Each structure stands twice: as C-alpha cells, then as structure tokens.
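Renewal narrative, Specific Aim 1. Our central claim is that a sequence can be written position by position from structural information alone. The example that follows is taken directly from our test logs and has not been curated for this report. It begins with the structure tokens describing the chain, in the order in which they were read.
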C-alpha cells in the first residue's frame, strides 16, 4: 500500500482517503502534510533526531546496532 492522502473537493472538504499515486494519476485535488527537520550537532552531544539514535541509523541507511 502506498502513501495515504486526503482527497478533497473545491472547498477543501475531505471526500475520502486514497493512495497518493491514484490521486495523482486521476488528477484529483488532494491534501498532504510534510514534516521536515534538519540534522545538526547539539553541543558535542551528537545530532538531534526525533526517535533517537536508532532512527538516525535508519535515516542514514544503517541498521540499528
């Protein structure tokens, strides 16, 4: 199953939840939300990543050890 998004009408009312690929393919209006964060050093304690170091390893493509 792909990414789920909200299909909306012209007044931004939610009609249904569908896969994003289908909404794009059918050219339906849809709504998505994106969360972005920046990896950076925090006072010599290593990078801050929501979810901790295991999430950072997964983000960087390494298995959590």
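The sequence written for that structure reads:
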């Amino acid at each position: 199953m792909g990414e789920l998004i909200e299909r909306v009408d012209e007044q931004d009312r939610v009609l249904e939840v569908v896969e994003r690929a289908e909404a794009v393919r059918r050219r339906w209006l849809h709504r998505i939300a994106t969360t972005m964060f920046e990896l950076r050093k925090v006072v010599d304690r290593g990078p801050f990543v929501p979810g901790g170091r295991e999430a950072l390893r997964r983000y960087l493509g390494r298995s959590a050890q």
